[in-house]
Amino acid sequence: MNYFKNKNVLVTGGLGFVGSNLSIALAGKGANVLIIDNMLPRQGGNLFNIEPVKDKVKVNISDIRNPISMNHLVKGIDYVFHIAGQVNHVDSVKNPLNDLSINVEGTLVLMEALRTNNPDAKVVFTGTRGEYGSSLKLPVAENHRINPIGIYAITNFAAERIILTYNNLHKIKSVCLRITNTYGPRHQMAHDEYGVFNWFIRKAIDDEVIPIFGDGRILRDYLYIDDLVSALLMAAVSEKTAGEVYNIGSGIPLSFIDLANKIIEIAGSGKVNHTEFTSERKALEPGDYYADITKIKKELGWEPIVMLDKGINETLKYYRKNKNKYW
Ligand SMILES: NC(=O)c1ccc[n+]([C@@H]2O[C@H](COP(=O)([O-])OP(=O)(O)OC[C@H]3O[C@@H](n4cnc5c(N)ncnc54)[C@H](O)[C@@H]3O)[C@@H](O)[C@H]2O)c1
């Protein structure tokens, strides 16, 4: 059943990596998609990202922190995917107040706009696995201790709690996802300040050195963007998800060094070089992480289907074709 046909859907941050891939999927399902994005510098906003659906979606270049815009734009919306955020880890350290402003105040403005203008909309929020901080037990389930290390993760957790409070207090049906490292087409490729997987892809395509901090044995969990998009869609339409938090990941641990070698093998170019952690990176490094995705599997029947080799191949194909739009 196509739940999105003729539905009005708002995607904040819809010109970025996650938001644009989601918007393309929604437009394909016949939804009326409205994107709000402020094209924040040094982030993933890129008009080329929505090239395949540019005549099908509406784009409003505005800031989620502007209550005048938001009060108007949320009217008549059935589903809100709240994806806009300050995601640049380096900027987050240099300018933490900007994280607070975008991730926390921006979320509050959106939820207030919904409370006063459209409390019947369903909200899906894209939070981060960073909310857990260092893992006490692997794989990490939703009831794991919350202990975010950096300001980015702290402000994501605050946003999650605000959204769940509006769910509980004001009955605005909302679901929050804690998402692992996601990769694939339409991620920014200009710098390595966030999105390590895609940065490795760029280095391999350019036949350059992929820098690996330390011995590269730290484990992470990597998810292909199409699998994240299917999780977002399922979380939105399910009646069971209001007030819930779900981990989204592949659940499969992979070290940085094994990831780099796999990308090099498939790309046929690139090389690895081990370097010392910078003090900034070391301080923000939470160590091993991979997700326990039992809850979403059991409750929604979602599970990732794109295997690593296929995901890497698709990503390489996209950037080789569209390199000039990303670097
Ligand atoms: N990509 C991942 O691996 C990953 C993992 C976990 C969580 N997330 C979360 O998913 C969300 C999207 O991440 P992404 O990878 O697509 O990043 P991205 O940088 O590609 O996209 C973010 C978008 O938000 C927009 N934006 C920022 N501030 C805004 C504001 N005030 N008003 C309107 N638009 C604004 C930016 O212009 C950009 O287009 C973030 O909230 C991030 O925390 C992503």
Summarize the biggest pleated sheet: 7 strands, parallel
In sequence order, what are the helices and strands, one letter per element?
A: EHEEHEHHEHEEHEEHEEHEHHH
Radius of gyration: 19 Å
Helical proportion, percent range: 25-40%
The name of the CATH architecture of the domain at 8-184 and 222-250 is 3-Layer(aba) Sandwich
For CATH, the homologous superfamily of the domain at 8-184 and 222-250 is named as: NAD(P)-binding Rossmann-like Domain
Shape: globular
Alpha plus pi helix count:
11
Helix/strand structural class: alpha/beta
Provide the residue-averaged pLDDT.
Answer: 96
Span of the ends, CA to CA: 39 Å
CATH class of the domain at 8-184 and 222-250: Alpha Beta
Write down how many β-strands occur, each being a DSSP E stretch of 2 or more residues. Answer: 12
What small molecules does the structure contain?
nicotinamide-adenine-dinucleotide
Q: Which percent band covers the strand fraction?
A: 15-25%
Spatial strand arrangement across the major sheet: 3-2-1-4-5-6-10
Unreliable residue runs = none
CATH fold-level assignment of the domain at 8-184 and 222-250? Rossmann fold
